[in-house]
Design a protein that fits this description.
Layout lengths: L2 H7 L1 H4 L13 E2 L5 H16 L5 E10 L2 E9 L3 H18 L12 E4 L2 E4 L2 H5 L3
Parallel strand pairs: 1-2
Antiparallel strand pairs: 2-3, 4-5
Helix pairs in contact: 1-3, 3-4
């Protein structure tokens, strides 16, 4: 297991308010290159929730789809301002992932390879995993 994957796997323990049911059933379904972004996103979500004691969130899934980050969650008891702040944090993370190689974390962009979208840098595109 890579260090990046171990850091992701620790998130449910670090942020139990985001992962009330513990680890995600399928884990984090994206490459290690996005790990720092997901870790920063969870820290931001936790900070937002600290200012909204009546709100709760449950992260359901974090994965790559169509070359981008998909971060699914359920939100309960949040006012409009808190909900907007959480959405903004998730949207920013997704936009950042669209410019970062999913595998290694270098600068990249979403590319269409015969209908298969991925966010891999040129080195990772030519080097199989």
């Amino acid at each position: 297991m890579s260090e990046a994957r171990a850091r992701l796997d620790a998130l449910p323990t670090i942020y139990p308010r985001l992962f009330p049911k513990g680890p995600l059933p399928w884990g984090f379904e994206h490459g290690d290159g996005w790990s720092p972004i997901i870790i920063a996103l969870c820290a931001r979500l936790d900070t937002i929730l600290q200012d909204a004691p009546g709100a709760s969130i449950e992260v359901l899934q974090a994965k790559e789809k169509f070359g981008g980050l998909r971060f699914y969650y359920e939100l309960h008891g949040a006012d409009d301002e808190t909900a907007a702040a959480l959405r903004e944090a998730v949207d920013l993370a997704a936009a950042t992932c669209a410019r970062v190689c999913e595998r290694c974390g270098r600068r990249s962009a979403v590319e269409d390879k015969g209908g298969w979208l991925s966010t891999l840098c040129s080195a990772c595109r030519t080097d199989p995993p």
